[in-house]
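Our preliminary data section would be incomplete without showing what the modeling component actually yields. Below, a chain of 286 amino acids is followed by its predicted structure, encoded as tokens that our downstream tools consume directly.
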Amino acid sequence: MIIVTGATGKLGRRTVERLLERVPADRVGISVRDPRKAQDLADRGVRVRRGSFDDPTSLAHSFEGAEQLLLVSLDRTGEECVSGHRTAIDAAVRAGVGRILYTSQMGAAHDSRFQACRDHARTEDLLRATGTPWTALRNGFYASSALQFLEPARHTADIALPADGPVTWTGHDDLAEATAVILAGEARFEGPTPPLTGPAALDFAAVAAIASETTGRPVTRTVVPDDVFREQVLEHGAPAAIADLMVSIFAAARKGEFTAVDSTLAELIGREPADFRTQLARAWAE
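Predicted structure:
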């Protein structure tokens, strides 16, 4: 059986849908905090069990019988994130999971400027130490993050953000399809995969040009000092830790941590991944 955690989230849900196109529903199980949110999947024959990263007993039950486990990374940072991953990995080992696949990030490194990438690197260390076969899906930076940063520009026609560097923005749909391909046994990787990225690395100056062409009106790019941007984030009600995390994305981008462009994602899905122009046009058409 293939078990997917976080199956009601953006990436997990899409992965389950793509997986059901490749394997029978009775081979798929999901581990979710609230099974009620996955009733439609249960109705289609997917095994739905409650599993919380804060409750090892629940994870042992939800991972039961797993030949493969897709561990979707937690939406947490720092020790809270790594501790949750450690709990899930330990539960997977105790449950005798045959292979653990983990949604890592293209910039995973202990010396990254971006906290989430340091968390991914530490989680990969935990996987490496288990002795269990594992795969770290080095996903490209999610394009949805760029779209969130761009949301004010829909109204102001100005992308006012800190200085950045090129980032290979990559879509959830393409990553979910590639993950399903791997889970279904159509491809195999030991340890970290090559970067699973979109077709081009773009900075926000290039994004502004794309936005101008997409909307038919000029969109400018204004560089905001890091400290000013951080204060703006705080003024919108975000906690200091989140403000610092957002600023660190730009620091990491300036360092060139997210510039890799690789063909592996295209090879897995059998087509060119959606470029950022397509994703922006789709989002701004809504």
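Residues 2-138+172-192 form a domain with the Rossmann fold fold (CATH 3.40.50.720). The chain has a mean pLDDT of 96. Preliminary results of this kind motivate Aim 1 of the renewal.
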